From TrEMBL:
GO terms for molecular function: oxidoreductase activity, acting on paired donors, with oxidation of a pair of donors resulting in the reduction of molecular oxygen to two molecules of water. One of its GO terms (biological process) is lipid metabolic process. This is Fatty acid desaturase. It comes from the Bacteria. It comes from Turneriella parva (strain ATCC BAA-1111 / DSM 21527 / NCTC 11395 / H).
Length: 375
């Protein structure tokens, strides 16, 4: 695990002030160029979806056409999920005052209900990033990814659980805000008020993909059905892999609740940096990740249009180097390999390894010379 230089309280606040300056500089540029970008991406997504659906409906019994149609539809679903839906619902394009691109009115093409996602992701995850017991995205209530969580025998199965979560990721996200893990442990009771909107969205999405579109395809109903299933699997596996690479590599740290009491803005920035991982790739790769390949910048600046993270990244990296902080980045193969290693490691009892250094951010969050963090 890469080490980070201990920062004094003053250095932490200076670190945060420099990142605030990067944020302000970028926000000053946001406007028509960003609006054009997201409109172009939405049109590109529609073009891919139209091509995919037409190929499956008209020529789905031809294997080559089925593959091309399924691939095109899968790309459309990835674009809609990652670069469009995720970023719009973060409020990145609210400045346009357009219901089609506004965070409070957008409903995405997936089983997850937007209102529930905005609460579990925008609020809980981005406020309490990688804080054990507060950030429910840390393992999604299924996986053990830190030795701060007690090991239980069922964790031995988490490589299998992770595979299932990957394939069914849209449903895992859909059920996430219900806190099914707490319901199972008897810590919470499920109410109809919570359950009904979730089930309505799940069933509506399934009816669209698995009933409506096949029913309109006549003799090609089966190719359309299987194409929709495969396209959704493409989107699920891709989204799961990119999101996990951004949060659960070996160098992505977790934090105890007592470490972030009275957390200042500078310390919040530092926690976002230390709990995040970036991915290297070309321009198309970044688009398909929804620019979550720049997860560090996304955690630092979640409401800035994500396509601008590429221009912010060198400035953020330079600030990290100035303050002796590790900027965690690497190829998809490297980062995803670390994710799988971490999932396997924490599926086993800690007694086999001793105290592991992957988990607790002991060093750079705490100021030097024993200074206390205050807000």
């Amino acid at each position: 695990m890469k080490t980070n230089r201990k920062l004094s309280k003053e250095e932490i606040e200076s670190f945060g002030a420099e990142l605030d300056a990067v944020r302000a500089e970028t926000l000053a540029k946001v406007g028509e160029e960003d609006a054009k970008y997201i409109r172009d991406i939405i049109q590109l997504c529609r073009d891919y979806e139209l091509l995919g659906r037409e190929l499956l409906k008209a020529e789905g019994q031809n294997p080559a056409a089925w593959l091309k149609g399924t691939w095109s539809l899968g790309i459309a679903k990835i674009l809609e999920n990652m670069e469009i839906g995720h970023n719009i619902m973060h409020g990145q394009y609210d400045f346009m005052n357009d219901p089609e691109t506004h965070s409070q009115t957008y409903e995405w093409d997936t089983a997850s209900h937007s209102d529930g996602w905005r609460h579990s992701h925008n609020y809980l995850h981005h406020t309490y990033t990688n804080i054990v017991g507060k950030d429910r995205d840390l393992g999604y209530g299924i996986l053990r990814l830190t030795d701060d969580e007690p090991w239980k025998p069922h964790h031995l199965l988490q490589p299998i659980s992770n595979t299932a979560l990957s394939l069914l990721f849209e449903y895992g996200v859909a059920l996430h805000d219900l806190e099914t893990d707490r319901i199972k442990d008897g810590e919470k009771e499920l109410t109809l008020e919570e359950l009904v909107p979730v089930l309505k969205k799940i069933f509506a999405q399934a009816a669209k993909d698995y009933l409506y579109f096949p029913a309109t395809a006549g003799l090609n109903a089966i190719p359309v059905l299987t194409g929709n299933v495969a396209a959704n699997l493409m989107r699920n596996v891709w989204a799961h892999a990119i999101i996990f690479c951004g949060h659960f590599t070996s160098d992505a740290e977790t934090f105890k609740q007592e470490e972030v009491i009275d957390e200042s803005r500078g310390a919040w920035y530092l926690r976002q940096l230390k709990g995040s991982s970036n991915l290297t790739g070309d321009w198309w790769f970044h688009i398909l990740t929804g620019n979550l390949s720049h997860q560090i910048e996304h955690h630092l600046f979640p409401d800035i249009p994500a396509w601008r993270y590429a221009e912010m990244a060198p400035k953020v990296r330079a600030i990290c180097e100035k303050y002796g902080q590790h900027y965690n980045t690497g190829s998809f193969v490297k980062q995803y390999g670390e994710v799988l290693k971490r999932i396997f490691r924490y599926s086993l009892p800690d007694s086999l390894f001793g105290k592991n250094s992957l988990t607790i951010a002991q060093s750079a969050l705490r100021p030097a010379q024993g200074d206390a963090l205050t807000g």
